[in-house]
Amino acid sequence: MIRAKRCGWAESDPLLGEYHDKEWGVPVHDDRKLFEFLVLEGAQAGLNWLIILKRRDAFRAAFEGFDPKKTAKFSSADVRRLLANREIIRNRLKIDAAVTNARRFISVQEEFGSFNDYVWRFVGGKPIKHRFRSMSYIPAKSKESNRMSEDMKGRGFKFVGSTICYAFMQATGMVNDHITTCFRYSEVLGH
């Protein structure tokens, strides 16, 4: 049996393969899931995505199921509790950013009706469908992620540089960056 070809980054670990095959690049329109990726992409800054995937369940538990309303209410005692949690990334700036971002997230929901409506406007409401033939062509950021980053920073979000925003866009299907030879490329186009 011939195994289907995947994007090269997903070949090194079964967990990466599963994430690639089931989630990466599929359009996400659920606010809680969007908040999850906002927290995880911020936590990933400077680290390998596999480290985050291995700790995803611990992050989910630590951040109340990625409920932005509950996370927004975290106190300094909650932050200290998270800093002692060996199962997540214990970086004070990243933990503080997750709490701040939960508060900003709620403000955006109030202003735009949903975080989904806010964030998808940076790509005109529909996924950007790239046609990259090789991983080497996939950018680390784009004009859309630059605009998203600038706007989010202006609203007080943290850990939302253009590269993080672009990774967020890839994860949530705002861009389809599966290479054209990947079996998921055409599957994701159909979403």
Describe what this molecule looks like in 3D.
The structure is a single chain. This protein is mainly α and 191 residues long. The protein has one domain: Hypothetical protein, domain 2 (Endonuclease III, domain 1), CATH 1.10.340.30. Helices cover 55% and strands 2% of the residues. It is built from 10 helices and 2 strands. It has a two-stranded parallel sheet with strand order 1-2. Helix 8 packs across helix 9. It is globular and about 50 Å long. The two termini are 27 Å apart. The mean pLDDT is 95.
List the helices and strands and how they pair.
Layout: H1 14-22, H2 31-44, H3 49-62, H4 68-72, H5 76-83, H6 92-112, H7 115-120, E1 128-129, H8 143-154, H9 162-171, E2 175-176, H10 183-189
Helix pairs in contact: 2-3, 2-6, 2-9, 8-9
Low-pLDDT parts are none
Strand order of the largest sheet: 1-2
Helix content, binned percent: 55-70%
Counting DSSP E segments of at least 2 residues, the number of strands comes to 2
Total number of helical segments? 10
Shape, per Cα inertia axes: globular
Rg to the nearest angstrom?
A: 16 Å
Structural class: mainly alpha
What's the mean pLDDT score? 95
The H-and-E topology, N to C, reads as: HHHHHHHEHHEH
The CATH topology is given as Endonuclease III, domain 1
Q: In percent, how much strand structure appears in the residues?
A: under 5%
Distance between the termini: 27 Å
Any idea what the CATH superfamily is called?
Answer: Hypothetical protein, domain 2
How many structural domains?
1
CATH architecture: Orthogonal Bundle
CATH class identity = Mainly Alpha
Largest β-sheet summary: 2 strands, parallel
